[in-house]
Amino acid sequence: MSDPRLRARAHQQQLAPAPAPAPAPPPPPPPPMEPPVAVGGTAAPAQDQAAVASDSSFKLKFCTVCASNQNRSMEAHLQLASANLPTISFGTGSLVRLPGPSITQPNVYKFNSTTYSTIHQELSNQNTQLYTANGLLNMLGRNLNIKSYPERFQDWIPGKPRLEHKDDQGFAGTESGVVDVVITCEERCFDAVLEDLHNKGGRMNRPVHVFNVDIRDNHEEALVGGRGIRELALMLNEAAVQEMETHGETGWDSGGGSARAGFDERVPDILAAWQEKWPNLPATWSLAWF
Amino acid sequence: MSNTHLEHARSLALTDSKYYPSLMPGVLPLIGPNANASLEVQRFGADFLAEMFASPMWSAEAKQPIALLVLDTLKYYLDEVHDRGVVKGAVQAAASVYPLVYRHTISDPNDKPHWQTMIDIKSNILNRMNTASPGIRICCVKFVQQVVLAQTPGVIDPRRPDHSDVSLALVPRDHPLLTYVHLEAEGHGLLDRLLDIIHGDHSDALSVTSVLNSLGVLIHRRPVVANKVLNSVLNFNPLKLANSPMTPKNKVNMKAIERTTRALLVNTLKRNTTERPNDPNNGRIQHFLERMHRMRQDMMEESSRKRPAPAERTDGLDPAKRQRLAAGPPTVTTTAPPLSPGPVSYRQLFTIDPENAAANFDVKMFQDPALVQQILIPILQSIDEKKLLEASNVVRSRYLALSHSMSRQQPPAPVDEDEYEPDDYEPEDAEQVANRLDSTGDITHVAPAAFKLPEAPRLSPEEVQQHGALAVRRTFGLIGELEEKGKATKGGFNRLAASDYGRDAWITIAARLATRASAGLDDPDDGIKDEYAVKSIKGTLSIGDTIRDLLYDYVIRDWKKRIDVAVSWLNEEWYNDAILVQAAAASSAKSSTNGVAPPKGHYHRCALRLIDGILPYVAPQDKGLIRLYSELPTLDYEILSRMKTMAQDPERVGLATQVLQYLHMFRPPVKNVVVQIAAELWRENDRAKPKAGQLLKAWRPEVLAEAGGVEVKMEEADANVNGNGNAVAEVQAAA
After folding, report:
1. B321, burial (CB in 10 Å: exposed 0-12, middle 13-18, buried 19+)
2. Which of A286, B36, B225, B624 could form a disulfide with B260 if both were Cys (CB 3.0 to 4.6 A apart)?
3. pLDDT tens, position by position, A219-258
């Protein structure tokens, strides 16, 4: 199923029988929370939906990335933000691409300047029934409640304060415009992120853990993947909080015990443990620099 | 309380970075050494400093004076505070601050205290490199990267001075605090330390990927060390962990290292292909990436095909069987590598450790003897006596061994004294050049040996043909580009062929090359099998045929405009054939050898091929065909009979008869042939009958009389047929 055409076709097939809600007026219903039908063997491990980060003063900051900053990264953005974690999100594609009336007529928008509500408006004017049936309007309605417009990773200036994004979900903690963890949803995006960080040259001297969690680009998989990412993020955050707590003389010299180890060195272990639990979301990781 | 204060200050700075300078005097006392601050505040302080100097929102120029203010605080954090969070922040801030203080010291050579504090901070961080916990260690890696950047020379392009790039190139040679040589040596040493990490233990993927991700900038901005870094990366096996047991963590680590290496190399390759397309490294990187991809695929295949072997069975448990993965710690004793066989230079003789960076150091670089003294005396003082003895023993034994072998051998070949070529030092002035010339005069034993280029491999006949065809094709590329001249100035009989560089000149050259160059060299039996199949005689070496093919293509592509080309080419063919026939006749007359077949001409074959090629494209109104026929040097029955073929198309009957008529009028030598063709046309082609009949009525009425009695009927039938023909034409047009 690596062929994008096949994938797109499967996508349509999966979407075809989806019940079409009434023509979606913004704001739409919140994303469905019921466990999705198992698609392609991806079974969602049983998981506590209510898990959120504790309200301690320290939290890791997250950034989710997919191709168009619409489906997978936005689902993950929502999940992380509702888990009480500081989150921003981006896309690495050259343009925002959404399916159109046929495979050769995609809807294409510019990053950073087209708002979700504009896109929503345009698509519902174009063909309400079609875009309701394939879930686009539902998705866009969700997105416009999360933040205002899709952003491109390559145009992001890390370290530039993001005060103008204060209405975005998951804003608290991301004011300074840097993150500790980047989670991409596709190998292509992972490569693009590492490549872009090379190009930016690491001028901030700030380490960032870049993860990739492979998620297929459809609504169901995005939901499952978003939950996986949420769990991973909570695991990472917990380790980071533990590091913060083992401070002072005691934590400094006495090693031993995984909780005593620092956050950074525990990342491979955490990812390995997470991967065991989520075998259908192949993941990888690298330590890069802002 | 101070905490909310500080938070407030931070959020103010986030709204506009211009507040940073004015905030510092208020913030520093709260977080600094004398504040007795709580751990919470110190953590905040370290993060705040790191964030402030990392911010892209204000310039390095503005940061530079502030950097001097915070040095004491950073030093205090590193020396006195034992908390991971604080140290991490402090090391990050130090990495950003180092280039700033470095540049400040360059511009203010008298400010020793600040530089001294920076050096203390640096040594504190470097000491942590091997012992600190991994989270801090990666920050140290980034600090070291910044030091390497600052202490290796950058590219100095006078056209594009990059003021933001702090590099060794900014350091003047006579700086009292910054000794160029020391900084450079330290930079190289630290780079080696970085590179050691990626060749070290791969179960520590955190460090390895952090180094790999920091190398990209070094490769890009420091061409001096780019080769070294790339060599190191290309000699590195990202899949080293594949040999150890496949625990989930190892899987994560291996994949991390592999993907990170790939991203680094792909990034370098992309940059190189735009900036330095001829860099020989590009091929190596490509090769490396492909190999890595294959290896990974092999592994994936293996793991997907078979069930993984049970973990306890692996031989990894038995230390005797385990493959040695990591290189052992470097041996301390100085073991000098043996000299390479063959002639040896003095430099090689005295070089104990060719790997060492100092071995490549050229002392000639120092122009100031005082500077040399300044460096040499401390070095001599600090030399370990034992090491010196060992080293001199090594040299002594080498020398003995050499002189032994020398006495048996010829005197050594002259040593190339100038093998060291610094790539970017200022050009020598005239005096230096003169000095060098003087001194080379003294060295009598240096005899300039003739330098021979290695012989190129012999070309196979196919290659020769390919290259020849390529050359010809390029000529035609040129011809195609040259504009056809609007109005050719007629030079009359005085003009010389190919005297300008226009299209016609090249056509003439090409045509003559095709016809005359290999004239008489053909195998007389060649081409008997298939006269017209020029394209099928692959494998012969005939350049002429290659050119003929291209000339043919060239004409066919736009025959109406290129009739002149066709005519001049065919004229050359005809002329050459005629000359050859003459020569053959002369030689056979002289030698009277029987059996020398008269050389087969090319004209006839080429003309036929060209006409056959053009005919399908001729429209009923194309009068150009008449011109072409009239200008061909020789016409015979076969060439003219092509008119019969053309006349099978009812629309072009008119044109065919016009050609015949014209030739009959203006080319008396072919009159008979023309009449013959017309007669055949009249007999064989019903649709052409009326037109051919008209011609024959004037030329040879007896042909018409052959038909005699049936003529009237025929006329009628002709009309019918004509009508039918028109109908057919109409149908065709409609289709």
Report:
1. exposed
2. A286
3. 999 999 999 999 999 999 999 888 888 754 444 444 444 4
Neighbours of A73 (CB within 10 A): 35
Q: Is pLDDT at B658 greater than 80 in this prediction? A: yes
- Whether the model pTM is above 0.90: no
Chain B residue with minimum CA distance to A159: B55
Collect all residues of chain A within an 8 Å Cβ-Cβ radius of residue B272.
none
Tell me the chain B residues in contact with residue A247 when contact means C-beta distances shorter than 8 Å: 39, 83-85
- Quick: pLDDT tens for B593-652: 444 455 667 888 899 999 998 988 888 888 888 988 888 888 888 888 888 888 888 888
Using a CB-CB cut-off of 8 Å, the residues of chain B touching A199 are 267
pLDDT of residue B376: 81
CA A159/CA B54 separation, integer angstroms: 7
A202 neighbors A284 (Cβ within 8 angstroms) = no
| Residue B422 pLDDT exceeds 50 | no
The alpha-helical segments, DSSP class H, found in B166-312 are 180-199, 205-221, 223-234, 248-275, 281-305
Measured between alpha carbons, how far is B624 from B566 in angstroms, rounded to an integer? 12
Q: Between vectors from CA B240 to CA B207 and to CA B234, what angle results, nearest 5°? A: 80
Which residues, 6 or more positions from B316, have their beta carbon under 8 angstroms from its beta carbon? Answer: B244, B245, B322
Residue A89 CB neighbour total at 10 angstroms: 30
- Summarised one tens digit per residue, pLDDT across range B423-437 is 444 555 555 655 555
How close does chain B come to A83, measured CA to CA in Å?
Answer: 24
Measure the CA–CA gap between A125 and A134, rounded to whole angstroms. Answer: 15
Q: Name the residue facing A272 among B210, B249, B260 (closest C-beta).
A: B249
* CA B412 – CA B399 distance, rounded (Å): 13
The answer to whether the CB of A65 falls within 8 A of the CB of A158 is no
Q: What is the DSSP letter of B620?
A: T
Mean pLDDT over residues A267-278, rounded? 93
Residue B731 has pLDDT above 50, yes or no: no
Contact criterion met (CB < 8 Å) for B146 and A205: yes
What's the mean pLDDT in B642-664?
88
Which pLDDT score, from 0 to 100, does residue A137 have?
Answer: 93
3-state secondary structure of B661: helix
- A107-109 and A96-98 as β-strands: parallel, antiparallel, unpaired? antiparallel
Give chain B positions within 8 Å (CB) of A275: 248, 251-252
Binary contact (A202, B145; C-beta < 8 A)? yes
Q: How far apart are the first and last CA of chain A?
A: 34
